[in-house]
Write a structure and sequence with these properties.
CATH architecture of the largest domain in chain A: 3-Layer(aba) Sandwich
Mean pLDDT of chain A: 88
CATH superfamily of the largest domain in chain A: Periplasmic binding protein-like II
Shape of chain B: flat
Largest sheet of chain B: none
CATH class of the largest domain in chain A: Alpha Beta
CATH class of the largest domain in chain B: Mainly Alpha
Strand content of chain A: 15-25%
Shape of chain A: globular
Number of strands of chain B: 0
Largest interface: A-B, 30 and 25 residues
Oligomer: heterodimer
Number of domains of chain A: 2
Radius of gyration of chain B: 26 Å
Number of strands of chain A: 9
CATH superfamily of the largest domain in chain B: MetI-like
Order of helices and strands of chain B: HHHHHHHHHHHHHHH
Low-confidence stretches of chain A: none
Distance between the termini of chain B: 31 Å
Structural class of chain A: alpha/beta
């Protein structure tokens, strides 16, 4: 007669299966609790999550470290990206404390979504557009009109990215001007080979020489002086980009968020922005809340 | 053997207790299930949430939208090209890795696995500096008037670079596992090298090859980072489904969700196919 094996013999990999499972569960519980440790207020270390437009990367990183020097318990953690992507993330619940957008439209997406109160929004900087070409200028682009020459490769940002939208505005303004042909915008758009997800990608593609021309902010062009050459856009067709900043309503560090924004608006913050090529807050339009 | 009343009486009280219902429950299995449940839910919940978010009317409305249809078509065409290229170009390479004995074979193996662990953005940058306008090979091509970046060819190249290693790995393992005795027997019977490969090696490896090919296709379908950096983003030309989803996230969330669900359904069908094909193979082998 065959007797069945005792159950414990079948689990022959370990001597005591119960002890194994128990110790596994305890290890896992410890690991999980280590991962989810959080800090609470007071003079405890605070991490401030700032979602900022990609064009602000240089200036805001510097402002962040200066802010940390002034408030040593605060670490400013940045999420840089296309303002449209950031606005989408915030409206879907991403945990931001401060949002700095490259245009009013994306700030208004978040205001309409209810995550930011329109009375809390302030404009902290302005920017202008510029056309960039690789240093060795493979397509020999000398004037703005050259952008409409057939066969050249233009890289723009997607139209929902602020700089992409601004670029389209510039093109339509130029088309309306007598010094450009009426089909200028159409011809330029025919030359576009890629719509990038943020302004830094446009800059990289031109700096690498992959595209013949791109449209970015003057502040971005200034970060790659050795790889790109700029072609200025006259004020008549240029777009004044307006950068608003605001704290999030449900931020867990509201007072720190307010302090950070105050720092950005202060002369220290404004000086850093100016050093990166941004135009002062007062020299352009102010914030317009969404029509309700 | 049926238990008689006498046998029952002869059992000790301990044995009778052991046979009672609650001792028959395997508590180890229950503990395992409870331990697995949270992670299982974590993996399944996002998929469920995605499907629940869209209504069938939404999905149908978006499927006929030209930009959505364009993205789906481009994805299908480019991934099929990627699959073809991978199978044609990857099979000889896999055979070499499986059977060749040359110095540095282990290093070559590891190098060919690199695209799998490489962040896709890094792969994109690497492709750009190799094949871009001023790239290592690219500047020669540019002199000949050939520009690869920003074209569907670049999309296929990006997908192939990140996805082919899956097929090559699977194929080389499969070839290595074919019993040499069977191949030798075929050779003795008069089959030439191509005959041996075609009639012995290949049929014996076909399940694993199919599995590898389907994984390559699935990876190519989901490819984003390398594509957007090397090929750029232009609707109809280089905007595959993953790119359209990313850009649609802000512009039109429901279009993005429709594409996401199409991608999900396609990937799920592929994976089911792999499992089924492999199971069939395992059953017939036994």
């Amino acid at each position: 007669m065959v007797t069945a094996q005792p159950a414990s013999r079948r689990f022959h990999a370990v001597r005591s299966p119960h002890l194994f499972v128990a110790s596994l569960l305890i290890t896992l519980l410890l690991a999980v609790s280590a991962c989810t440790g959080t800090n609470s207020g007071g003079s405890q270390p605070i991490t401030l999550n700032v979602f900022a437009a990609a064009s602000l990367q240089g200036a805001f990183t510097k402002i962040g470290s200066q802010f940390h020097t002034a408030h040593s318990n605060v670490t400013v953690s940045f999420n840089f990206g296309g303002s449209d992507t950031l606005a989408g993330q915030i409206t879907q619940g991403a945990p931001a404390d401060v949002f700095a957008s490259a245009n009013v439209a994306q700030m208004n997406v978040v205001v309409k979504g209810g995550q930011i109160s329109s009375s809390a929004v302030q404009v902290f900087a302005h920017n202008r557009l510029v056309v960039i070409v690789p240093k060795n200028n493979p397509a020999n682009i000398q004037t703005l009109q050259d952008l409409a020459k057939p066969g050249i490769k233009i890289v723009l940002a997607a139209k929902t990215v602020p700089v992409g939208g601004y670029a389209l505005t510039f093109l339509s303004k130029a088309s309306a001007d007598p010094s450009f042909s009426a089909s200028y915008q159409a011809n330029v758009l025919k030359n576009v080979v890629s719509y990038e997800t943020d302004v830094k990608s446009v800059l990289s593609k031109i700096a690498l020489g992959e595209g013949d021309a791109g449209i970015v902010y003057t502040t971005d062009a200034a970060t790659e002086p050795n790889s790109v050459t700029t072609i200025a856009i006259p004020d008549a067709f240029n777009v004044i980009a307006t950068y608003p900043i605001a704290p999030l309503k449900n931020s867990k560090q509201s007072s720190t968020a307010q302090q950070f924004i105050a720092y950005v608006m202060s002369s220290d913050g404004q000086n850093v922005l100016a050093s990166y090529g941004f135009i002062a807050a007062s020299q352009g339009p102010q914030y317009t809340p969404p029509a309700s | 053997m049926a238990e008689t009343a006498a046998t029952q009486l002869l059992k000790t009280r301990h044995e009778r207790r052991q046979e009672a219902t609650w001792h028959r429950v395997d508590w180890r299995k229950v503990a395992l299930l409870l331990a697995s449940l949270p992670f299982l839910l974590f993996l399944l919940l996002p998929l469920l949430a995605l499907v629940l978010r869209a209504t069938p009317a939404d999905i149908l409305a978006h499927l006929v939208d030209p930009s959505v249809a364009q993205a789906i078509q481009l994805s299908l065409v480019t991934t099929l090209c990627t699959l073809g290229l991978t199978v044609i170009g990857g099979t000889p390479l896999a055979y070499l890795l499986a059977r060749g004995t040359f110095p540095g074979r282990t290093i070559l193996d590891a190098l060919l696995d690199l695209p799998i662990v490489m962040p896709p953005a890094v792969a994109g940058i690497a492709l750009l500096v190799a094949f871009g306008r001023f790239g290592l090979l690219g500047h020669w091509l540019n002199a000949l008037g050939i520009d690869i970046a920003f074209t569907p060819v670049a999309v296929v190249m990006a997908q192939t670079f990140v996805a082919a290693p899956f097929y090559i790995k699977a194929a080389s393992t499969a070839f290595a596992n074919v019993n040499h005795d069977i191949e030798d027997a075929a050779a003795v019977d008069g089959a030439g090298p191509f005959g041996v490969f075609g009639r012995i090696t290949l049929p014996l490896s076909i399940a694993a090859l199919m599995g590898g090919a389907l994984m390559t296709w699935a990876r190519a379908l989901g490819e984003f980072g390398a594509t957007i950096i090397f090929a750029g983003n232009f609707p109809g030309r280089t905007q595959t489904m993953p790119l359209a989803i990313y850009l649609g996230f802000e512009l039109d969330l429901s279009a993005a969700i429709t594409l996401a669900i199409v991608l999900l359904v396609m990937s799920f069908a592929i994976l089911l196919l792999v499992r089924w094909a492999l199971r069939q193979r395992i059953q017939t082998d036994q």
